Amino acid sequence: MYKLLIADDHPLFREAIGRVIRDGFEDSEILETQDLESTLALTQQHEDLDLILLDLNMPGMHGLSGLLQLRNEAPTIPVVIISAEEEKQVILQAVTYGAVGFITKSSPREQMTHAIAQILDGNIYLPSDIIRASGTARRNSPRDEHAITTQQLEALTRKQLQVLEHMTRGESNKMIAYHLDIAETTVKAHVSAILRKLGVHNRVQAILSASDIDFSAYLKRGPRPGD
């Protein structure tokens, strides 16, 4: 079904995530490496890989530098970071450097399966519990270049606010469409409008910017033209 590469220097973790993949995605082919050098070599031999699950701390990585090197040498293969790291800034930087998602090693089995499925479906996955953490510190930081203003939020229609709220939960367009009972194409249109109105360039920036918003307060307002 899929061909995935687990790049991690801990055999027990490779075995554990391998079981998650085999149980959730039957007939998938799983390859394994334990350092950056062998990972780079294997990507040259298997350009049809559907996904690389990459540990930030295995030999040769030097943190995000290894991710950059991998993205430069194998730009067509999606990479998701699987790490014990739970710092929001590291997660943001990883996605900025080209990762399609970030899965923490402490995630429950079901959450890992959901995250991998979402990424294989072409979406970005971020751990919503971490992204939404420390909201007060972000809100009070004058240097937060992606902070959302009240005026920008007021510019969103009620439906766009609902879509944005679901985005901050890490949901894909398909999941949002299901929960809001609207077409997936309509969700995509709302997402595009949200990015434009918030003045951000991509979905990740929108999610991070909105991670500490009390959506219930804005959704209680009465309908306005355009809602």
TrEMBL record:
<keyword id="KW-0597">Phosphoprotein</keyword>
<dbReference type="Pfam" id="PF00072">
    <property type="entry name" value="Response_reg"/>
</dbReference>
<feature type="modified residue" description="4-aspartylphosphate">
    <location>
        <position position="55"/>
    </location>
</feature>
<dbReference type="InterPro" id="IPR058245">
    <property type="entry name" value="NreC/VraR/RcsB-like_REC"/>
</dbReference>
<protein>
    <submittedName>
        <fullName>Response regulator transcription factor</fullName>
    </submittedName>
</protein>
<dbReference type="InterPro" id="IPR051015">
    <property type="entry name" value="EvgA-like"/>
</dbReference>
<keyword id="KW-0238">DNA-binding</keyword>
<feature type="domain" description="HTH luxR-type">
    <location>
        <begin position="149"/>
        <end position="214"/>
    </location>
</feature>
<dbReference type="Pfam" id="PF00196">
    <property type="entry name" value="GerE"/>
</dbReference>
<feature type="domain" description="Response regulatory">
    <location>
        <begin position="3"/>
        <end position="120"/>
    </location>
</feature>
<dbReference type="InterPro" id="IPR016032">
    <property type="entry name" value="Sig_transdc_resp-reg_C-effctor"/>
</dbReference>
<dbReference type="InterPro" id="IPR011006">
    <property type="entry name" value="CheY-like_superfamily"/>
</dbReference>
<dbReference type="InterPro" id="IPR000792">
    <property type="entry name" value="Tscrpt_reg_LuxR_C"/>
</dbReference>
<dbReference type="InterPro" id="IPR001789">
    <property type="entry name" value="Sig_transdc_resp-reg_receiver"/>
</dbReference>
